Amino acid sequence: MPEAKSKAQQQAAGAALAAKRGEAKVSDLQGASKEMYDSMTEQELEEMASTDRSDLPETADDD
Fold first, then answer.
1. pLDDT (tens digit, 0 to 9) for every residue of the chain, 63 residues total?
2. In the prediction, which pLDDT does 29 show?
3. What is the predicted pLDDT for the residue at 54?
4. What is the 3-state secondary structure (H, E, C) of the chain?
5. Most buried residue among 16, 22, 38, 56 by CB atoms closer than 10 A?
6. 54 backbone dihedrals φ, ψ, rounded to 5°
7. Closest alpha carbon to 49 in 21, 9, 22, 19
């Protein structure tokens, strides 16, 4: 299952998850969180959002 590669990615997954659950407005999503909302299941978002943040960089490097 997917794991977040950065704190920013984890935060975007959390926002998308909240929208999937009806806890936030879909219209408030933008950028990565909007893409995640459209392309990932609630289960995938939950796993990405629950990734341990302690060892994650702020942003992921593009390789």
1. 588 999 999 999 999 999 999 999 999 999 999 999 999 999 999 999 998 888 889 988 754
2. 97
3. 85
4. CCCCCCHHHHHHHHHHHHHHCCCCCHHHCCCHHHHHHHHCCHHHHHHHHCCCCCCCCCCCCCC
5. 16
6. -60, -35
7. 9
CA distance 30 to 24: 12
CA distance 24 to 19: 5
Backbone torsions φ then ψ of 22, nearest 5 degrees: 80, 15
Residues with Cβ within 8 Å of 60's Cβ and at least 6 positions away in sequence, in order, are 5, 6, 8, 9
